[in-house]
UniProtKB/TrEMBL annotation:
Protein name: Cytochrome P450
GO molecular function: heme binding; iron ion binding; monooxygenase activity; oxidoreductase activity; oxidoreductase activity, acting on paired donors, with incorporation or reduction of molecular oxygen
Cellular compartment(s): Membrane
CDD domains: CYP71-like
Cellular component GO terms, alphabetical: membrane
């Protein structure tokens, strides 16, 4: 579908065939992302990987991030952090149970995901997490790409009235101030640690600082780059992960039979154990299916991240001109009845009967994107998604607030760069398995 978004030519791709053309057949042509006016204001302090133009620097940085920061080995090394944070999370909810008050699951999951990610990044809990989460909420709102100043970039008047650029600059200043604080916290901790400790549990900031000392990753790495990379990994990873967990919980509350099956699976797999560890996850195939189905029905980035056409080309017989913004409508593709039976129904077992996966080869299902720009945080995200969901369902039974019936649970969405649940999810927990 060809559109004009204000002054900008745009094509929205809404079929798997067209998505394959963009993200596979002509992947290089679409491997750059457009820099909207708002984004330009936010990346002024430094450029991470997500909005680097396709080229040598992006290639080297992407390789470094994939092999050094987010590799399967590195993600595994953070297992003790994830398990420890999950245990603290269970303890916090268990302490709230006797009071009989509903728990704000949205806020607790956001804190857990943030604490876990930040410990992986700087080696310990971050002292100003609340402020950082406020920045994330703001990024989701201003990063949609559909602000007036993004749609009419040539109009200084529109930009001045719109005010988003001002907000974006304030957001960047605040985020970078927090990243400075995190680097300082990291430095203080490291100065008190022995050389062996430092080598043994290297966090992401440690890897970045070591790489800087060693001369970079094939390209120089300055402090501005380090800050931009850290901020970007946190922004890209935390909101998408916690949003997915909350949608999964909301769907489970609406579908008690799915909840029951998941809890039965956990009971059989864990037997007399009193805590979920990552070793148990291999025996929880149904939890994995719930996550897949949640990513289908509530794709966190419904239009993925935008691409820009670098060279005029033809997609399924239509001309796409150089400079056109291309949006892959993963949301629509994931709900298209041509490819999905009863697409609006939450049915995790649909994935039992098919081999469709989110690794970027099935173009009817690309919640993590595909091609050169596919999400490099997939393993990092899955490790958190699976453990947190398993822990929530193993330790607690959950009830809706009185008067709410499952089929009427509020599922209203708030659209930004990701689609989160508009209102926080409040539920009553009952402890099933104490720690
Ligand atoms: C449920 C969780 C997540 C979802 C659904 C998700 C989804 C996506 C999508 C759709 C893209 C764009 C892909 C494309 O253009 O083809 C992307 C890019 C990216 N994601 Fe994720 N993501 C998640 C978690 C994470 C995590 C945990 C991290 C890091 C810790 C991360 C880091 C990134 C980065 C750096 C990019 C930009 C890659 C590039 O442009 O080269 N994401 N993600």
């Amino acid at each position: 579908m060809y559109l004009r978004l204000g002054e900008l030519p745009a094509v929205v791709v809404s079929s798997p065939d067209a998505a394959r053309e963009v993200m596979k057949t002509h992947d290089v042509t679409f491997a750059t992302r457009p820099l909207s006016t708002t984004l330009r204001a936010t990346v002024a302090g430094g450029l991470g990987v997500a909005f680097s133009p396709y080229g040598e620097r992006w290639r080297q940085l992407r390789k470094f991030i994939t092999l050094e920061l987010l590799s399967a080995k590195r993600v595994r090394s953070f297992r003790p952090i994830r398990e420890d944070e999950a245990a603290r999370f269970v303890g916090g909810i268990a302490a709230a149970c006797p009071a009989g008050e509903p728990v704000n699951v949205t806020a607790r999951v956001a804190n857990l995901v943030a604490d876990s990610a930040l410990r992986a990044m700087i080696g310990e809990r971050f002292g100003r997490r609340e402020e950082l989460l406020k920045c994330v909420a703001q990024a989701v709102k201003i990063g949609s790409g559909f602000n007036a100043c993004d749609l009419f970039p040539s109009s200084r008047l529109v930009c001045a009235i719109d005010g988003t650029v001002r907000k974006a600059r304030a957001f960047t200043r605040k985020t970078f101030e927090l990243v400075d604080y995190a680097i300082e916290q990291h430095r203080e901790r490291r100065s008190g640690a022995s050389a062996t400790d430092v080598a043994e549990d290297e966090d992401l900031l440690g890897v970045l600082l070591r790489t800087q000392e060693e001369g970079g990753f094939g390209c120089p790495l300055d402090v501005g780059d380090i800050k931009a990379i850290l901020a970007e990994l946190f922004l890209a990873g935390s909101e998408s992960t916690s949003t997915t967990i909350i949608w999964a919980m909301a769907e489970l509350m609406r579908n008690p039979s799915v909840m029951k099956r998941a809890q039965t699976e956990l009971g059989c797999a864990l037997q007399d154990k009193s805590t979920v560890t990552e070793d148990d996850l291999v025996n929880l195939p149904y939890i994995k299916l719930i996550i897949k189905e949640t990513l289908r029905l509530h794709t966190p980035g419904p239009l993925l991240l935008p691409r820009e056409c670098q060279e005029s080309c033809e997609i399924l017989g239509y001309d796409v001109l150089k400079g056109t913004i291309v949006l892959v409508n993963a949301w629509a593709i994931c709900r298209d009845p041509k490819y999905w039976d009863e697409p609006e129904v939450f049915k995790p077992h649909r994935f039992e009967e098919c081999t469709t996966d989110f690794m970027g080869t099935d173009f009817c299902y690309t919640p993590f994107g595909a091609g050169r720009r596919i999400c490099p945080g997939l393993a990092f995200a899955l490790a958190n998604l699976e453990l947190v969901l398993a822990v929530l369902l193993f330790h607690f039974d959950w009830q809706l607030p009185s008067g709410v019936i499952p089929s009427e649970l509020d599922m209203e969405e708030e659209v930004g760069i990701s689609v989160r649940r508009k209102r926080d999810l409040f539920l009553h927990p009952t402890l099933r398995v104490p720690l």
